[in-house]
Amino acid sequence: MQSLKQKLESIAQSQQGLPFSVYSSVTDQHLLNVPIVKPLLICILGGEKRLGDHAQPNSSDTVCAVGDFIFLSNMPNINMRNISQKTEYFALLIGFEFEDFAIFNKRPAQTKPFFTGKLDNLLVQTLDQFVDWSPSAPETLWHTRRQELLLLLYHMGHKQVSAIAEPPSLSHKVEILIGSNIELDSSSESIAKQLAMSDSTLRRKLALENTHFQTLKDRVKLGHGLHLLQTSGLPIGLVAEQCGYQSQSRFTDKFKSLFGLTPSELRKTKLHEKGE
Length: 276
Known about the structure:
This protein has a five-stranded antiparallel beta sheet with strand order 1-8-3-6-9. The chain has a four-stranded antiparallel beta sheet with strand order 2-7-4-5. It is globular. By secondary structure, it is of the alpha+beta class.
């Protein structure tokens, strides 16, 4: 596991455009309402991750320590803490597409929005190969290696993996379309057209899912901003621009409103902090 961490550290600054990400920090990160649009595997290689309503003193958190993994469903959002444990929080993240789960013929009913497990030697070896292979492999083949990971988890006894991906709701479809052109100021009319429905129908159906177009739009844009702040040294103004915000101050206000801290405060937790 240590060799995998060292390998990831060596490519942490050039990981954009790969089928995995690396998140790290040297001080604790307390994040609220983190949007999980697609199923996500998080492997803890340093520090500790806590999930739950940790704002409440008596709440029961799910704790993932070094050597653990957590597989999150495409739930609306989640509160989490990334804890450095006085050294460094370090995690490998792999996002999955809904189509990856087509390998499972039967989909049991999902009972929990996530499950946890241990990074045993076979899983670590497979992750190591995945990381080695990804930079030189064509993107069209990424899904085959993701499916290998899913099958491995299933045969390791984590049968829940076959049910972890919720069928895409209309909200998820809207989020995916917005995310496909993140720098554009996508309108509800343009998204509705892509979904072959009227704008009024789209808004009405989203209301039935207890959400609104602007809420989804903000979640996607700010979620992308969170990812860029975690994985790159881009200036915050450029991050805001790449998320479709012309004003850095507006991006900062929206970011803090959703996640509970500003982009600058998040940056201060980072190991390799870049000047703004």
